[in-house]
Structure formats: structure tokens, C-alpha cells
Write a structure and sequence with these properties.
This protein is α+β, with helices and mostly antiparallel strands. The protein contains 3 helices and 5 strands; from the N terminus they run αββαβββα. Helix 1 runs antiparallel to helix 3. The two termini are 34 Å apart.
Amino acid sequence: MTTIQHVILSLGMVTFSLVGLMPPWMHARVDAPDVRVAAGSAFITVGAPVRPDTADDGQRRRGLPTYRGLPLRRWESRIDGRRLAMRWGGVVGATAVGIWLASPVRRRRAPADR
């Protein structure tokens, strides 16, 4: 590998690590795991907590904070593995293309006639 390829590989590894430290989060219902809401990206140790809606509805008057019309206890934050895998795949693909583009051009000569 050339020096430029080593630099591209190093930048790709750093970017891969940073993407893993700031993964995409989702809010999922506890009773229906197929119901998911994208919650953006956040630092891995902090996460994206489920916060109550600001709209005043019937549940709010009874003192139960809600998120999307359901009590908060029915929601949880999770790392969105699908979007994280897509982001990591993009980083790996971009790094591979960069290394390939930075490769020295080697031309094979035709064997000399004997």
C-alpha cells in the first residue's frame, strides 16, 4: 500500500469509530416492537431518551405524560441497528473506493515475441 492509501484507510477507521460512538437511535413501543420512530443520533452513553409530548391532551390532564398519544412507560429507546449498519457500510464502501482510486496504475506489458 502507498502512503496515500494508508492515510485513506486511517481516516476510514477513524470515521467508522466515530459513527459507532454516535449511533442512530429509535423509539420503539414495548408492547408492539414493530412500531418505531426515528429519534436521531446521539452519543452512545447518553442515548435519545423518550420525552413527553408538549401538546395538552386528555392523558396530560390526568398527570400521565405521553409520547405520541401513549404513556411514556410504553416506549423505550434503542439503537437502530439497520441504520447503523447502513452508515458503517457507507463508510467501508467509501474507504474501499478511495483506496482503489489511490492505487498506482500498473500496466502489464504483453510478453515479448520469441
